[in-house]
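ugh ok fine here u go
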Amino acid sequence: MNQENFLAVLESHRSQRPFRGFTVELVNGQKIEVDHPGAFFARDGVCVFLAPGGIPHWFDHENVLQIISQSANANP
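structure:
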């Protein structure tokens, strides 16, 4: 994923009202479930997400396979 698209997609998800969680799938198969709009910070193509319990997940635009939106009709 290119850097500009990566940052735009993350910001688009952050600004959704109401916020809906999303999944970041990495090229190595790892899936990161983002559950809160204030739990991640992205800059210059790099993102850090703090999972519940303060567990950090670092990833960059080159390692993201896809970002999967949560369905609007999914249960919270």
